[in-house]
Amino acid sequence: MSLIIFAIPLFFALILLELWLDWRKKTNTYQFNDAVNSLNLGMMSQVTGVAYKTIQLSFYVLVYQYLAPVHLTAETSWGVWLLGAFAFVAYDFCYYWFHRMSHEINVLWAGHVVHHSSEEYNLTTALRQSSGGFLGFVFYLPLALIGIDPLLLVTVGSLNLIYQFWVHTRHIGRMWGWYEAIFVTPSHHRVHHAQNPMYMNKNHGGVFILWDKWFGTFQAELDDEPVIFGVTKPLLSWNPVWANLDVYWALCKDSWRTAAWRDKFKVWVARTGWRPADVRKQFPNKVYNPYQQVKFDTPLTCAQQWYAFFQHLTLIAVVLYYLLNAGQMSTPQILAGCAWLVFQLFCLGYYQQQRPGFQWLELIKNLALASVSFSVLSASALFAEGATISAWVIPAAWWLIATVLQGYSRTQMPASTAINSN
Predict the structure, then answer these.
(1) Tens digits of residue pLDDT in 80-103
(2) pTM, 2 dp
(3) What totals of helices (H) and strands (E) does the chain contain, helices first?
(4) Which residues pair with 194 in a beta bridge?
(5) What residues contact 61, with CB distance under 8 A and at least 6 apart?
(6) Cα 335 to chain center, whole Å?
(7) Would you list the domain boundaries of the chain?
């Protein structure tokens, strides 16, 4: 099991600490809808990962078993530590190239853009992960060829991702000179998340900034160039499903529309942002100036925020249950659970965006949530009958209260606040 699951309590503890610092310093680095959306995308990534990462790891195992000339092992405790350190550094080297190519090739960017589509930068952004990075495992196959055990790969990969969590903050400035020279820091990674022209496609390392310095992709954060977070084609949506499909869909449209057969394929593997000339002429992109950024939001009343927050906490609990029990599930159960949870996360994003008919979708979602909760809780000896009944009552009561409050709040709110983009 991935160490990420066991690090989740630490992640949320640090998020709460950052929220407290944000409130105390009045720095406003958090925006409710954005933070919830980032966490929803993180949950969706973990849930879908159960379904497809096993397949990716299977390819690694096959290469390791049948193509690796040697299998690296250690006989002593010192040897174990040295092998672990070597694997950790080697993994980060492969991560650098995967991450860099994810910014430089269209189809890889489509699978990575989710992490950059937030216009804020805080610890929830670290958990804003993609569900569509299907090709990334290819970059780690060289580790199988040199004999790094699959279990060791999963371990160092988890540690690499855990390290990257804390650098997603604006509350830590520049650090000690020696540390900044070797390791990725919050200052380095803020540059990586910038859409300022001079900062774009820089600082791709996960743990070590040395790779960027050696391969010409390093850029220091400058005092006279404040970082503007986000992407040059804003997502303008709280829909976690659309966040994962947005760029893929744009590439599909360009591939379909171009007349040249060569360009139908080239658009996928070309440098990020490249479009066929005929498509670019007929369907030009809107001119975007990052220095005139207007951050996307959909105003919610206090009652609506509390309702969305409650639903979000409920989904966190259900997702954790799914992740902890996936090892005992059959393949159909894993796929059904994945589809059901993605639907739940889609509905929450739909509610945040106040799309037309969201009340009815919310009713369907809560009935589905209550039904599954009833099945899970009634089958578990850990829960009493009262908890099973509450699985029905609490979501239904919350939906009723929120609907009444929503009906009142919409009479107090201009119609223009209901955003109807994807």
Answers:
(1) 999 999 999 999 999 999 999 999
(2) 0.86
(3) 17, 0
(4) 229
(5) 144, 150
(6) 20
(7) 3-215, 302-417
